[in-house]
Design goal:
By secondary structure, the chain is mainly alpha-helical. The chain has ten helices and three strands, in the order βαααααααααββα.
Length: 245
Amino acid sequence: MFGQCGTHVINCSLVIINSTAIERNTSAIGLLFPGGGGAGKFDFQKVVELYITSILILLGIFGNITSIVVLRKDRERKNALFLLQALALADGLYLVVAIFRYPLKYLLPSHEKFIAIQPIVFPLLKTFQTVTIWMIVIVTIDRYTCVCRPLLAPCLFNQKTRRGYTLALFVAGFLYNIPRFLDSCVYKWYNPCTGAVVSRMSYRESFSGPYYYNIYIDIMYIVLLYVIPLSTLIFMNCRLVQAIR
């Protein structure tokens, strides 16, 4: 079954679990004894993820749907506003997937059912996050080109190229996050003393090495989703302000 890694038996006197998987996914206490850490902390997390996050997600989805509807009504600037519609779509998809990542854990009757879908939900969340961030960059480049490089704008950003950029970003976002669809699965730990079975998503053994985590999860994630996009946005927005002045 996809996302299932098997069952491990916990020794009552000595518990030995892959420390790398624990550190990167959850604490040892939370892994073996779900709900540990105090009721106050758990209640606060529930309030944030179930109520506050749900309200923000619903407002965001409503706002994105409204934006797409309003932008589609503008026939005169249909091509120019296409990228904004694509951005609203990507952000809306991210918020829809976020429902299955955060509020759903408190709505399902079984914790195991929630954990079982996370090997798919989490990679999808990261995929649409990647697409949304780079759609913002493309929208900014479009505005920058129209204002600061007007002679190049018709060549770089027209109806055909805008659609091509959008399709390429969605495909690239999925391809970049393919390792996330493969690196994790659901482990089950069985305690013969209590008869309890604990399910938790962890990295597969083949992906638990330091190279994958340090290079792909840390370095590439920070550079491609933070450093380059933010640097590009800062530079182009500063040039836009100067050009407008």
